[in-house]
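Moderator note: this is an archived Q&A kept for reference. The question asked for a predicted structure of one protein chain; the sequence and the answer are reproduced below.
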Amino acid sequence: MRPTTKLLVLGLISFWSSPILAQEFTILIKGGHVIDPKNNINQVMDVAILEDKVVQVAQNIDAKRAAQVIDAKGMYVTPGIIDIHSHNFFGTEPDHYLGNGLEVLPPDGFTFRSGVTTVVDVGGAGWKTFATFKTQTIDHAKTRVLSFLNIVGEGMRGGPYEQNLSDMDAKMTAMVVKQHKEIVGIKVAHYMGAEWDPVDRAVAAGKIANVPVMVDFGGNLPPLSIEELFTKHLRPGDIFTHTFAQLTSRQPIVDSQGKILPFVVEAQKNGIIFDVGHGGGSFRFSQAIPALKSGFIPNTISTDLHTGSMNAGMKDQLNVMSKFLNIGMNLQQVIAASTWHPAQVIHREDLGHLTANTVADVALFTLQKGKFGFVDSGGFSCQGTQKLQCELTIRDGKVVYDLNGISRPAWDAPQATEAKR
């Protein structure tokens, strides 16, 4: 063997037997308080990741087994957050509202900083426009973007387009749903009439495609009965969003005496899903606080994120989660309503938990203590003493957001000094 060949062989042997390549995990999140509702984990544990998968959640995993160790002591470690009600069909059309319009938000700029790894755009696209949404946003986003397809073919274009009953085609909607794995449900929104047709056609499409329906309900005066909505039109597993809204055009769930309506409690027991969908005009403390005091809590916590809501009382997913943390839900309930519960609602049970061999979508939070103010959609404030802050987000096994550099080496660490030579 020639000297150069021998050196090459020895070099390859050394390379493949090096400590880095021999390590079992690419990332080890060590010493954090893990909250994983699906697996009933609520204690300090370590989370090991290999490439894009969670491979182990256990106590005292040896740090030497990992190429990178992230110290999560004093932090909460959860599955990546799922925002089940968002608006992400961003575009440049001035007359398209939340469907390829200017009031929508490209996802990656507003997800990872809140620990969100999955968003569900609700109704921005209809069957006529979904291909544009997929090409323009879904296929390019680092965030996992899913969709509730609007029963209106034009999508959430606003104005008269969303009032057009002739553009609400159950058959065509169901057909497009079945063609795309990214579509996880059907949306009804913004209809201003006394007819039940939009809801009924959406449910008909949901039956054909075997997906849930989300209803942004109420636009008529006098308001239609939400009891009739729950008992005669929606199915178990269908979603009533904007649960804590207080609008003249929709019957509230809490009456004028601060009592939750009994049929609302019964509807939840019978399988109707109640989603927060905070938005710019759809969350009031005067509804949420009495409801929670009575023992009624939402199934899912979501933002209804768009330019109007993010610059008003809603702000972001963590702000909404923090509100519920301060008005009656405990941290485990808040995390469940933002991870495993929405995953179940949209029939994506592969998400929202840290089971071994699942996708490595993980969020790290600190729980800040102090004096914090929160604002509802009516402009009323509520004081709180705790607030969630996202420290780090991992999507598909890669760090995509790191607030304080906990995943990065110090500038004067040995490896940094070596790299500068």
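Archived answer notes: The first helix runs from residue 3 to 16.
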